[in-house]
Structure formats: structure tokens, C-alpha cells
Specification:
This protein has 324 residues and is α/β, with parallel strands linked by helices. 39% of the residues lie in helices and 19% in strands. Helix 11 links the parallel strand 9 and strand 10. It is elongated.
């Protein structure tokens, strides 16, 4: 069979037009270098981020190098760690937690920065607004609606039905969960007491005061201070036999009773999509900051038994993860 030259040309053109462009479907051939900065130590955040990057075609050891930097709970080290990443000329810096995002902001680097998770980036001054972050920083926020914080008290009340006095370990601010919990407490007939601590040396005295004032349970907000000192806080809650609800699941992994909060693994998986967009030419200023959409309820039954608590089956049935 003979094919005319004109038909062959048309066929070739159509084939080229229909074929997917490799540049759109695949990550760049070159190795990408990402800086990963956290105030304490990497955990679910790293696994979530690497999983998200793998989904997009970036594989560590093949076309992805991740420069990990962790401050080990010493926030004063973050500025130096950011400077190290800048000297390494990484393509993008990914941060976890408010202190790390603030350190990246102070560095005034031209390197794009993606927030994996932090509190309120607007109130902290990291971005101009969620819709229009401005500058070279964007990413994801733990910030949720005000009504969300009331869930802390509701779930804690289910686990400890007879509790009437609850302490809140956190700091009030314009968009703090403290205010929302105070409103929820009235409908639950629970009295709440705010405990403000901003120095590690104050923690022991704060817990002693809770015991002296007959506090029956505790809510620990996901503030930068509380996250940095989570092991100490969990230890003191156990020592003073205080059932506690935490705003991040990392506290339960450290031995805390229960947590309800944004999934760090999911947030950092979504952060990978920001990195991918930036590597392909998007500007951080044009990428709106997203808020958490997936929340996990995690319960530690071993800790419940140590406190003499029986967690109701109705609550266990709603848990995303149970540690036993």
C-alpha cells in the first residue's frame, strides 16, 4: 500500500500534537535540592513531604536531595540553620512550625519558602494575607475556624465525663483557640482557666498550680512553645495525673492521652505540590496560603489505663488511630 507524502506529513503532525509533552508530565531532569527546616525534630512531616514529592516524580537519592536541619527544640539556632541552607543554594526551603517560618522571614532570602505547617501566618507577620501572601513565602497553615477549637473541650468531656474544671495551656491572641474554648465551655457547663507559660522553667510550677486548684483536665494548644516542649509537657501531665487533650497528634505519640488536630502528614504532602509548582516557575506571591482540611483524632489507650480512664466505645469508634 502506498501512502502519499501529504498524508504522511498530516499524520506526523497529528501524532506530535496528540503526544503528551514530557516537560509538563515529568519533573526536571536535574537534581532538585530542598532545604527542610524544623524547630524540634522531623517526624510525620518528613514522611508526608517525601510521599508527596514521590507522587510528583521526585525521588530522594535519584533527582531529589533534601538538606535536613532541625533545631532540637532550641529556636535560637534557627537563624543559623536558615543561613546554612541559603549558603547551600537550595532551590526551595520548606519550614515546619511558626519559629522556623519566622526565621526564614527574617533571613530576607530570595530563595522561595514553603510553609509546611504553622499557626496563623498573617497574625505572625509571615505573609500579608492568605489570599495574597506577597513576598517569597507561601504554604499551609494550621489555622482553622474559631468554632473548631470547641472540639477540644467536647472530645475531652467525652473521655472524662465528670470533669468540671479544665486548664488551657496556651496564650491568648486575636485569633487564638483560647477564646473559642471559653465560649464552648459555657455550653458544656465547664469552667476553664488559662495558664500562660513562655519559659521552660515555669512549666513545673504551672502544673503544680493546676493540681492545687483542683483542675480535672487540661487542653494544650498547638502553640510554638508547647510544640517545642511537648515531651516535658506530656511528662508533667502524667506526673500530675491530668488527662489532657492536645492540639497536635505528635503529643500523643510522645505519650499524651488524646489529640485532635490537623494532620501534619497531610499538610506536608500538600506542601510538596507547592514546591513542585515553584520549581516549574510559579511565584510564591501568586500561590494562596491554604488551611488545614484533614483532622485526626488519636487516642493513647496505654495512657488512659495509667490514668484510670475508660474511653467510651463511641469515642474510640471515631478515632483515626488508637495507640495501645
Amino acid at each position: 500500500m502506498t501512502i502519499s507524502r501529504g498524508v504522511l506529513v498530516v499524520a506526523l503532525v497529528l501524532a506530535l500534537l496528540g503526544a503528551p509533552r514530557a516537560a509538563d508530565a515529568q519533573p526536571p531532569e536535574r537534581t532538585v535540592r530542598v532545604g527542610f527546616l524544623v524547630p524540634a525534630s522531623p517526624s510525620d512531616d518528613v514522611e508526608g513531604f517525601l510521599g508527596g514529592m514521590r507522587d510528583l516524580g521526585y525521588v530522594e537519592g535519584r533527582n531529589l536531595v533534601v538538606e535536613y536541619r532541625a533545631a532540637g527544640g532550641k529556636s535560637e539556632r534557627l537563624d543559623d540553620l536558615v543561613a546554612e541552607l541559603i549558603r547551600l543554594k537550595v532551590d526551595v526551603i520548606v519550614t515546619g512550625g511558626t519559629p522556623a517560618a519566622l526565621a526564614a522571614k527574617r533571613a530576607r532570602t530570595v530563595i522561595p519558602v514553603v510553609i509546611g505547617a504553622m499557626g496563623d501566618p498573617v497574625e505572625s507577620g509571615v505573609v500579608a494575607s492568605l489570599a495574597r501572601p506577597g513576598g517569597n513565602i507561601t504554604g499551609l497553615s494550621l489555622q482553622t475556624s474559631e468554632g473548631f477549637a470547641g472540639k477540644y473541650l467536647e472530645l475531652l468531656r467525652e473521655a472524662v465525663p465528670k470533669v468540671s474544671r479544665v486548664a488551657i495551656l496556651g496564650r491568648p491572641s486575636a485569633r487564638s483557640p483560647v477564646q473559642a474554648m471559653e465560649q464552648a465551655a459555657r455550653s458544656l457547663d465547664v469552667r476553664v482557666q488559662l495558664i500562660e507559660v513562655d519559659q521552660p522553667g515555669q512549666l513545673e510550677g504551672a502544673f503544680a498550680a493546676m493540681t492545687a486548684q483542683n483542675v480535672g483536665a487540661l487542653v494544650v494548644t498547638p502553640s510554638p512553645f508547647n510544640v517545642t516542649h511537648r515531651d516535658r509537657i506530656v511528662s508533667l501531665a502524667a506526673k500530675h495525673r491530668l488527662p489532657a487533650m492536645y492540639g497536635l497528634t505528635a503529643f500523643v505519640d510522645a505519650g499524651g492521652l488524646m489529640a485532635y488536630g490537623a494532620s501534619l502528614r497531610d499538610l506536608f504532602r500538600r506542601a510538596a505540590t507547592y514546591v513542585d509548582k515553584i520549581l516549574k516557575g510559579a511565584k510564591p506571591a501568586d500561590l494562596p496560603v491554604e488551611q488545614a482540611t484533614k483532622f485526626d483524632l488519636v487516642i493513647n489507650l496505654k495512657t488512659a489505663r495509667a490514668l484510670g480512664l475508660i474511653i467510651p466505645p463511641s469515642l474510640l469508634g471515631r478515632a483515626d488511630r488508637v495507640i495501645d
